[in-house]
């Protein structure tokens, strides 16, 4: 009769909270999280309908948010500007304004919370009247090399304004090398580059585009000529390899949960710091399901963050960062 029972019972390691805690392999902390923040002025500030619980913050609100995030143990924020339509143009000149919204937002955060890391988005879609991440050539195509020239200048402007990390999210070829070159030339050796190295042309970005006001400008156009095909995986490794060779300090996979396989492959192949972005569509789906009583919001969020971290993401961008940090603190008491 004894031979009918298993010699090894893995369930013994799951039988009580104390042993599950002792053998847990993956632990998410506030230190893994980055809080994306939208910044705006005037009538553009306020709640974001497509992203319940998120808002476009004024500079004063941004400073208050920075102080709260430091208290929660979150190490960094990612800034995304919302620009009035009147300041948008075909070539996105406002992105280079040294007195523009992003440089002032950096200053506001550094004054309120000097130790909080500031990551700035390097892309032109918030600034262009057509909603693309780059400049358009005469035939309407996104001009890679002309765009890189602007991204290089934008990175330098934001680094000079005090950004700790510049994060090119545009997916133009060769932009990491040009950005690193100009930062080194200017003596900004310690400014980090977080490359959105594997950014996919995803349908999960919709709420974000509404939040920054690029959706209407983009219209029915897509970004498939520069963002990656969701069907491809080997291509992501090639993109990451190129960006590391050009001087990226960290790399991003975006979106997050639907691309766990990409995150895992990138981490295993390169062993560099890997970030994952739990994007607006992922956030809004969890919010909507929780509001309908279909999912336990806290449980689903913490599971999703654990899965991203388990999959190889050292850094997780999530609109839930502050809430997750608060729940983690509560659980530790």
Name a few traits of the molecule:
8-stranded parallel beta barrel; TIM Barrel; globular; 333 residues; 12 helices; 10 strands; alpha/beta
Characterise this structure.
- There is one protein chain.
- It contains twelve helices and ten strands.
- It is globular and about 80 Å long.
- Strand 8, helix 9 (260-270) and strand 9 (274-278) form a beta-alpha-beta unit.
- The mean pLDDT is 95.
- Strands 1-4-5-6-7-8-9-10 form an eight-stranded parallel beta barrel, surrounded by nine helices.
- The protein starts with 16 loop residues before the first helix and ends with a helix.
- The protein is α/β, with parallel strands linked by helices and 333 residues long.
- It has helices spanning 17-23, 59-72, 101-112, 144-160, 175-185, 206-212, 215-218, 234-246, 260-270, 280-291, 297-310, 321-332; strands at residues 33-39, 46-47, 55-57, 76-81, 117-122, 165-168, 192-199, 250-254, 274-278, 315-318.
- The chain is 40% helix and 15% strand.
- Helix 4 runs parallel beside helix 5 and helix 5 (175-185) runs parallel beside helix 8.
């Amino acid at each position: 009769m004894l031979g009918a029972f298993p010699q090894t019972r893995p369930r013994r390691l799951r039988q009580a909270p104390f042993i599950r805690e002792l053998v847990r392999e993956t632990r998410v902390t506030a230190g893994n999280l980055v809080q994306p923040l939208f910044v705006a002025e005037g009538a553009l500030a306020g709640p974001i309908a497509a992203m319940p619980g998120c808002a476009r913050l004024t500079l004063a609100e941004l400073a208050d948010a920075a102080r709260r995030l430091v208290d929660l143990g979150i190490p960094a924020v990612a800034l995304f500007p919302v620009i009035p339509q009147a300041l948008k143009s075909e070539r996105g000149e406002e992105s280079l304004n040294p007195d523009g919204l992003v440089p002032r937002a950096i200053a506001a955060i550094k004054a309120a919370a000097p130790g909080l890391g500031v990551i700035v988005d390097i892309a032109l879609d918030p600034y262009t009247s057509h909603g693309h991440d780059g400049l358009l050539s005469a035939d309407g195509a996104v001009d890679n090399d002309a765009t890189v020239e602007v991204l290089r200048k934008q990175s330098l402007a934001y680094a000079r304004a005090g950004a700790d990390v510049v994060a090119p999210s545009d997916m133009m070829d060769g932009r990491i090398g040009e950005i690193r070159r100009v930062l080194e030339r200017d003596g900004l050796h310690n400014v980090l580059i977080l490359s959105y190295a594997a950014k996919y042309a995803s349908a999960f970005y919709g709420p974000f585009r509404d939040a920054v006001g690029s959706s209407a400008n983009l219209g029915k156009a897509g970004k498939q000529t520069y963002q990656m095909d969701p069907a491809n995986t080997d291509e992501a490794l090639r993109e990451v390899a190129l960006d590391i060779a050009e001087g990226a300090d960290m790399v991003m996979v975006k979106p997050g949960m639907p691309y766990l396989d990409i995150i895992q492959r990138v981490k295993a192949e390169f062993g560099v710091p890997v970030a994952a972005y739990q994007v607006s569509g992922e956030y809004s789906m969890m919010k909507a399901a929780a509001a309908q009583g279909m999912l336990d919001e806290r449980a689903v969020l913490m599971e999703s963050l654990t899965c991203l971290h388990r999959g190889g993401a050292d850094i997780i961008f999530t609109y839930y960062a502050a809430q997750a940090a608060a729940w983690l603190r509560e659980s530790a008491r």
